[in-house]
Structures are given as C-alpha cells and as structure tokens.
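Objective 1.3, modelling of assemblies. Example input:
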Amino acid sequence: MVGGRRLSGQVVAAGAKNSALPLIAASLLTEEACLLDRVPQIRDVSTMLRVVEALGCTARWEDEHVLWLKSGAYLAPQPPADLVREMRASVQVVGPLLGRCGAATITTPGGCAIGPRPINLHVQGLRAMGAKVEEDGAVIHFRADRLHGADILLDYPSVGATENLMMAACLADGRTFIRNAAREPEIVDLQSLLNQMGARVRGAGTDVVRVDGVSRLRGAHHVVIPDRIEVGTYLAAAAITRGDVTVTDVIPQHCEATLAKLAEMGAEVSRAESAVRVKAGWRLRGTTIRALPYPGFPTDLQPQLTSVACLAEGVSFVQEEVFASRFKHVEELVRMGADIRVEGRVAIVQGVDYLTGTTIHAPDLRAGAALVLAALAARGESIVEGAHHLDRGYENLPGKLAALGAEVRAFPAAGGHHTTRVTA
Ligand code: UD1
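Predicted structure (tokens):
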C-alpha cells in the first residue's frame, strides 16, 4: 500500500459478520430450509459453514450473498475441534444443538488473540436451563433430555452468551429470562430471524430478553443487517486520510458511537436515511475513547480509531473496557512512528505529524484493519503481512479501498496467506 492519498467516494456496506455467524447457527434449530440474504463473503462465514456442514446441515450459495441452509433430521453433536479453535463464534452452535438434539460437545474455542476469552457465562446459563455439563480437559460435554426455562442473570452482557442462550431457550420448556443481556444490534437481528422461524423472543436490544419456548421452529427468509464495524472502518479511513467517504446501505443509528466520536475529533459527519458520510479535509483533534458494550463505543473499532488518534493533534486516551488485552496494534503503529504508551487498559496516544510506511504485521482481524488505516495515511509504501486475518471479516477490503482511491494491492504470500501492499 502507498499512503497519503485522500480517500473519496462511495462504498456499499456488506452484511454484518457478527450477525451472519449466529444466524447460520440458528438455522440448526429447524429441519426446514432457511434463506439468508446479504451474507458477507468472508472467511469467518466460510468457517461457520464448514462447522454447520460437519454437524449435518446442507449449505448452498444461491447468489453472491444469498445463502440457503437446511439442517438434517439428525445432527452430529460435536463441531470439528480445528474449526472451533479457528473461530470462537463456533461455540454458538451449542445452544441450537442442545435445543434440537439434547447433546453438544465442544473444545475450548479460539478466535482473535485478544486476551482470555472464557465461555463460563454460556456454560452457567445452559446449566441453569437444566444442561448437565462435564469438563474433560479442553473438551466440554453438554447434555439435556429437554432444556427448561430459567431466570438467568449474566455477570457481564456477553454478546455470544446472550445469543447462545436465546437460541437454546427457543426450544426449551417454558419461559427464560436473560438479564443483563447484551444489547448489540446483532442480537436484535437474531431475535428477528428466530421470530420469523416461529420462536417467541422479546426484548432484544434491551437488557432483558424473554423467550417463551415452543415445540418446533420452521424455515424463514431473512436479510442480514449491515456491518457497522465495516462501516466504521471506512469512515475511519476517510478521517485518517483527510478524505470524504460515504457508506451506503447502512443503518445510521447503529453507527452513532463512531459518528459521534469522529465529529468530536473535528470531522464533518452527516447521516441520510441509509447512508453516512465523513469528511475531514483537515487535521483532527485528540479525544477520549472508551470501548464498551453497545451502545458504547465498539471494541471492534477501538484499534482503527487508535490509528486515527495517532495523527490527530494533541493527546488521546483510549480505554479498552471489553477485552483484557486488545492493544496488539500498538507495537506496530509505534514502528510506523506513532507515539503511544500503554498503561493497563489505557493507551495514551500523543498525536504525531506523520507516520512512515514500513513492513508491519497484522496480529488479528481488527488490529490488522488499524494497520491498514495507518498505512493509508503513512508516507511511502507499507506492506501489511498477515493480511489473511483481514479476510476473516472484511469482504474485498483491497478492492473497496482501491475504489475509494487507495493505492493498494493484495498478493499471495508463502503458505497460501496473502499480504497487502499499500503505496503512496
Ligand atoms: C462478540 C463479537 C466480537 C466482539 C465482542 C464484543 C461475534 C461473532 N463476535 O464476541 O467481534 O468483539 O462480541 O463486542 O459476535 N466473557 C466472559 N465469559 C463468557 C463470555 C464472555 O468472561 O462466557 C468476556 C470476554 O472474555 C470478553 C467480554 O466478556 O472480555 C466480552 O465478550 P463477548 O461479548 O462474549 O464477545 P463475543 O461474543 O466472544
């Protein structure tokens, strides 16, 4: 990649990764076919499809973004360990498997290397619903002839636990309350699919979700919501390159935290019915960012905004409240000339006049996105290694950036992984 070009133009948002993954898992709850529209073509979706296929689901792309899913009458209880290790969201199949078949076995899940990510809240909730849970080293066995409703208070509003428990509760006997539930838009999207399938779920988007169990679910057709994290990444690209980018096909309310933060930093921000625009032909100001559960600022955009802060005027404080260790991008940003000091969960960023392109390594998905943004604004050429992490969550990132005027190229690296080159 060659940095220094102001990005400008329009880009269409893809469907949300974090919706598509639990929605694919939800299709396991019925033997009837489910049709999901606007599914992003990203590697996490392919991994999730491999997971559900291994369990007995047939998946077919009907069109570029239209996915047809049909689960068999019999489902295997255990997703392949290598896939679970590759992607933490695989744990989302436990709720549907328990609901449909009364058994599920899972190896401890993987995903981005951003600190310890236990599944104790999933386990506690499923136990409260009557599941017998046995841990055998890295393997956890869940069993329940039939789950029953329960009143569950989550210690923390975990997105994954809320979704898993919602899905498990759909086919349980009686009523389940999930209190201190996560309120992310992706939870509302899941509720919407489940209710189309005949479930009785209320309250998604608030901190209490109520599910009345039903005996069976049917097929449904659902359109995935836009990816607010992808949208935020393109808005941050506009901000860091002092460009002017409009993202279309979005739900502006879902992007409010990002828009408000970029406006506070001095960018010109506008919202239309289904589009958002960020214009920043000047240097932005430093700010304070606190990554929190929704509707707070999303942790999945914290690394990207840290990159923006690197070139803003003055000091920024970036506080990470969701994950224990999510500053893996910092070391690489510093190699590009950024002035950042990490103290516990806070990164103190002193804005610098410029960053310098170099070879940097993407340690995970969103940290990788942060490095691409820094490379877009840096002087000279950058090579982002480990860019295969970006394919997990961004559909055609190099192509979309190039369409906005970036000089960027993806090329294969050893081991089948690809590297992204940005030159200015
Ligand atoms: C989801 C998103 C991920 C995002 C995260 C927070 C998907 C597929 N992934 O991940 O992109 O970064 O929400 O917005 O939707 N925790 C526990 N015990 C548990 C579960 C979680 O302690 O049983 C902790 C985690 O370690 C973490 C925090 O809770 O510190 C948030 O995790 P959670 O909301 O569960 O994130 P995920 O669902 O894994």
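The CA atoms of residues 175 and 212 lie 4 Å apart.
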